[in-house]
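Progress report, Aim 2. The chain analyzed during this reporting quarter is listed below.
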Amino acid sequence: MKVNVCVCTYQRPSVDKALRSIDAQAVPDGVTFDIIVADNDEAPSARGVVEAFAATARHTVRYIHAASRNISIARNACLDAADGEWVAYIDDDEWAEEGWLSALLKAAQEGGHDAVFGPVLAMYPDDAPAWMKKSQIHSTFPRTSGGVVMTGHSGNCLMRPCAPALQGQRFLVDKGRTGGEDTEFFSRIRERGGRLGMAHDAIVHEALPAERISLAWLQRRWLRAGITRARHVEVAVDGLARYAAIAMHSAKVVACLGLALLTLPDPVRSNVWRVKAAYYTGMVQGAMNRTEDEHY
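Predicted structure tokens for the chain:
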């Protein structure tokens, strides 16, 4: 069995740490893997870092120049180059724990899943607000409903391209600068009958840059996530059903803001409610067919 481990990168020296954490992975007998790096910069700015890493790596490394400044194009370039039975993704600002890839494979095979997702745990700088560290609000997990995985993220995932639900599927290019391209992709896979699962032990860590350590950034990010969910997961509908969705999510916005006020003495709970209010605001806007702003 062969796995392609893919990293999409854009002007981040941290890609070297990501690659080294991948190269150090131990996999079960009978499993091999190589590493595919898609450089999303107009200039091949990551080529030197990747080639230097490849010179001493234990595993084969392939470099692709996917010049576009569009993450969907880079992700699709990896899928086009993949030749394994499984394809994994990890971001260029993350690093994987030992046993990460084996845990993804185990969860996928034992659960009979076409795609599985592991946790992305945020690593906060020392000067980050205490409420953020305690809430771990930047950490990423797949979205579930009633214990069923509804969609997931590409920062820590494994998929089987030969599965019927995934054959020929690609990330939407028009979402490559707004974000949410992975939410839409895996929602589409589930709608096509794909089986999605969770790999709890497949842990990666993400170092947070200074610009993300703010409540305003979180509110913008969750607003966009709400728009994406309404447009691509719940799918905005016409007629009375649309107005019902708008009314329901508007009520949730009011409820979240009210709870944020009631819990003001507790910064963790209050700020989390404020972020959730931004999310449901995005759901309202998505139900009204607003498109996402470009964030990348």
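The mean pLDDT is 93. The radius of gyration is 19 Å. These observations will guide the mutagenesis work planned for the next reporting period.
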